[in-house]
Structures are given as structure tokens and as C-alpha cells.
Automatic annotation (TrEMBL):
Protein name: FMN-binding negative transcriptional regulator
Pfam families named among the record's database cross-references: FMN_bind_2 (PF04299)
Gene3D superfamilies: Electron Transport, Fmn-binding Protein, Chain A
Highest taxon above the source species: Bacteria
InterPro entries hit by this protein: Split_barrel_FMN-bd, TR_PAI2-type
Xref: PANTHER family: PROTEASE SYNTHASE AND SPORULATION PROTEIN PAI 2
Lineage: Bacteria, Pseudomonadati, Pseudomonadota, Alphaproteobacteria, Sphingomonadales
Source species of the chain: Pontixanthobacter aquaemixtae
Length: 199
């Protein structure tokens, strides 16, 4: 988390929306072999927890249950050029969206894991539109073998540490020039968030 409080947010609904919209993150934890990270889809329960699954062979899988972990969800980010400022005699920076979640992790049973998988499928099949794929199209033998290869987890979030660094220290005129520059540079997602989240 960035140390400047200007870049923080206490808006829980906004943070839940970021987790929902990004839907992917990194899980960090200490293991007997040292710190490890895993990359995984995420599903917010909406009541202070995040669910995810990992391959059973992942270095974290055998040690996560009952431990404290850290999940990082990274949103859009981009280089910010001084060419977009009214006063160009300064230095570049980097704007970004990131949410750190710290909490206690527990391993889910097979029923919870199956419910998680169905929730992932419904969410993302709906999101991409068109004719949806259904888990019922998968032969039962293939579906059941899936559980031999993955494990589900839920983290109870005990601390939220967001960073929404979007040139808040600049004037509104500079921020609009930055957003326009980001649009032209192909970073329209960050430009959109800058225009909608920064007063």
C-alpha cells in the first residue's frame, strides 16, 4: 500500500467492485521453503471473504489451511508523462490501482469447491455474453477428476489496504490532460477510473 493517505479509500463497495471486475489476483504466504505466491481467479463472497482455488501441486496448497495470507488484486496501471502537465519541469510517475487483502485462510470441502467452480462459470459465462457453456456439458468422469487436481480456499479478510493512485495531487485540469494522454496511449481503463473516481 502506498504510504500517502491521499491514495487510499474507505469505500468498501468500491473495493468489492474492483475485486469483482478484475477477478484475478496473487496469493502470498510463508511456507517452510520460504515465501511463495500463486496466481488465481478470485470470487468475493460480498460479506468479507474471498474464495479461490489452486492446483493441489502448488507450493502453497499444502500449507495455506489455517494460516494468514495476503491477496493482491492489481487493476490498471500506466506511466504518467510530464508532457501531460501544465508545468513540465518535473518528473514522471506511475499511476495504478491495487487492493491488498490480509486474512485467515481455510481450506474448503469438496462441496464448497464445487459451488465455487459453478459460481465462477456462471459469472464469467454471463460476462462474455453469447451462448453460454454449461458445466453439464462436461462428462461426469472429467468433472470428478478435476477435484483430484485442485483445492478450494476461502480467506476471511481482516485488513483492506487499497491504493488508488490517480494523480490526485494534480489539478483537475492536469488530471484531464493526463486522462486524455492515457486514452491516446491505450490506457483507457485507467483514464476512465481517473475521471470517475477522483473528484
Amino acid at each position: 500500500m502506498h504510504p500517502n493517505p491521499t491514495f487510499r479509500s474507505e469505500d468498501r463497495a468500491l473495493l468489492e467492485t474492483l475485486i469483482d471486475q478484475i477477478g484475478f489476483g496473487m496469493v502470498f504466504a510463508q511456507t517452510p521453503d520460504g515465501p511463495r505466491v500463486a496466481h488465481t481467479p478470485l470470487l468475493s463472497t460480498g460479506d468479507g471473504a474471498v474464495q479461490f482455488h489452486l492446483a493441489r501441486g502448488n507450493a502453497l496448497t499444502k500449507t495455506l489451511d489455517g494460516t494468514n495470507g495476503l491477496i493482491v488484486v492489481n487493476g490498471p496501471d500506466a506511466y504518467i508523462s510530464p508532457r501531460w502537465y501544465e508545468e513540465r519541469g518535473t518528473v514522471p510517475t506511475w499511476d495504478y490501482i491495487s487492493v491488498e487483502l490480509e486474512g485467515r485462510i481455510r481450506r474448503m470441502n469438496d462441496e464448497g469447491l464445487e459451488a465455487l467452480l459453478h459460481s465462477f462459470i456462471e459469472k464469467h459465462e454471463t460476462r462474455i455474453g453469447g451462448e453460454q457453456w454449461s458445466a453439464q456439458e462436461t462428462p461426469d468422469s472429467v468433472w470428478q477428476s478435476l477435484f483430484k487436481g485442485i483445492a478450494g480456499f476461502e480467506m476471511e479478510i481482516l485488513a483492506w489496504r487499497p491504493t488508488l493512485k490517480m494523480s490526485q495531487k494534480k489539478s483537475s485540469e492536469d488530471r484531464e490532460r493526463i486522462a486524455s494522454g492515457l486514452d491516446e496511449a491505450g490506457s483507457s481503463a485507467l483514464a476512465h477510473l481517473m475521471r470517475t473516481l477522483v473528484p
